[in-house]
Amino acid sequence: MSIKALKGFKDILPDEVGIWQFIERKARDIFRRYGFEEIKVPILEKTELFVRTIGEDTDIVEKEMYTFVDRNGSSITMRPEGTAPVIRSYIENGLFVRGSVQRLYTIGPMFRHERPQKGRLRQFHQMSVEVLGSNSAKIDSEVMAMAWHILQEIGLQASLELNSLGCTECRPSFKEALLGFLQERLPDLCDDCQRRSSSNPLRVLDCKSEHCQAQYASAPSIIEHLCGPCSLHFEEVKQTLTQAGVPYALNPKMVRGLDYYTRTTFELLTTELGAQGAIGAGGRYDGLVRQLGGPEVTGIGFAMGMERLVMLLGQKGGLESVPGPDLFLITLGERAYEKGFVLQQDLRAAGMYVMMDHEGRSMKNQLKQADKHRARFVLLLGEEELEKGEAALKDMRSGEQEICALAPAFKNWAPVILAKISERTKE
Ligand code: ATP
Ligand code: MG
To answer: Does any ligand 1 atom lie closer than 6 A to the CB of residue 221?
Structure first.
């Protein structure tokens, strides 16, 4: 019996890796333009980190975390999201001394024990960003504009939904209003919502049950309960989003699946992936750094799901195929093969993508391989050519072939071939 991958864990095969690299390259370029620096944090953390930040009554902590006891008897969790580890690192390494505002991003795998389905895996990948140290509403807009910009750059469209969850000042009054609303409907709600309406009432609004969601259509709106400062902040966020040319829709029911959010929260949605329509989400977490023992620093961030971006791009017909080798070296005879092998290394050292056959196949077969790899040029090097100090360069696109006179000194071959090829590919 062959061993298979775990359920919900997926290989990313060479044929699709081009799309992944494309998305990462575009995103990294946008991050750079917005002044973000990369940070890499561990995949394993103490369980406590996630329980304390994401919250005990959330789906993630209640039923989705990969948690185990390691050989020392400590409870360890495979990160289900990127914000808590980045904040932990920010505090532990004193990153706040590098400057009052830190713009950080990270790209990597996350782990959640969910029911695997299209667009929902147990190991999935996120690119996530965090801005630490600014309260400005302009930062909120900038971060959302950047998410928007990334999607634009990779050729995808999404709608942006926006909400404010208020702060510790105003949320209690909303909680109370919501609690009153829930109490009247308690018997009609799912078990999770019934339980949460007493432990963490806001959480119910994030329920996935359609039946519950239908009830919540008439629930009180958090936006109407915002305190003065939160209300002002939210107004400025909306205004500057419009100034930045980013369209959005208000969604006062959006609470997000993690407890640490305050004020601005948002989601990027698509209708093109069926049930798994969320391609990214984020928001402010003004109390989080303090809560983890760090300084009084506010923050905002978001995460985008790579698999969903890859799926969307794939649905759109993907990308042009990755280019093949610049040159495929065809050699005939032992001596030509020996020279060819060293020439291949010299050309690679000069920056070219070069391949050759090592199985001693016929010339016809080697040509076939060059074709299969979609090589741009082929260099034919046989015993006879070697004697004469020349090689035949074939342009696989035009079919043209030219004889290159090679210098007597072997070490000069690579520059000659390189020059010929760049001349031919100039236009
Ligand atoms: P969903 O509502 O789809 O469960 P979420 O609210 O749990 O999403 P976040 O925790 O905010 O998602 O993560 C941000 C993004 O990461 C999501 O918008 C989604 O694109 C992606 N994502 C989350 N969970 C998964 C998963 N199990 N498999 C693939 N992508 C995921
Ligand atoms: Mg989820």
So the answer is: no
Which mutation among 110, 114, 156, 203 tests ligand 1's pocket best, with the greatest number of atoms within 8 A of CB?
110
Residue 284 neighbours by CB under 8 Å, 6+ apart: 140, 261, 262, 263, 264, 265, 298, 299, 300
Q: Would you say residue 37 has pLDDT above 90?
A: yes
Helices (H), 154-218: 171-185, 191-199, 210-216
Q: Give phi and psi for 87, each to the nearest 5.
A: -65, -40
Rounded to the nearest angstrom, the distance between the alpha carbon of 202 and the centre of ligand 2 is 16
8-state DSSP, 62: I
Q: Are the C-beta atoms of 302 and 281 separated by less than 8 Å?
A: yes
pLDDT digits (tens, 9 = 90+) for 205-257: 988 899 999 999 899 999 999 999 999 999 999 999 999 999 999 999 898 87
Give the model's confidence band at 427: pLDDT under 50 very low, under 70 low, under 90 confident, else very high. Answer: low
Instruction: Using the mean position of ligand 1's atoms as its centre, give its distance from the Cα of residue 339 in Å.
Output: 53
pLDDT at 170: 93
* d(C-alpha 317, C-alpha 326), whole Å: 25
290-339 confidence digits (pLDDT tens): 999 999 999 999 999 999 999 999 988 867 777 899 999 999 999 999 99
Do 270 and 277 meet the contact criterion of CB atoms below 8 Å apart? yes
For the sheet with 377-381, list strands across it: 354-356, 327-331, 377-381, 390-395, 401-405
CB burial class (10 A; 0-12, 13-18, 19+) of residue 287?
middle
Q: Is residue 226 a contact partner of residue 252, using CB atoms and an 8 Å limit?
A: no
CB of 303 within 6 A of ligand 1: the answer is yes
Minimum mean pLDDT among 3-7, 193-197, 370-374: which range?
Answer: 193-197
Global confidence as pTM: 0.90
Whose C-alpha lies nearest to ligand 1, atom 24? 120
Strand boundaries in 243-326, DSSP class E? 249-250, 262-269, 278-284, 299-305
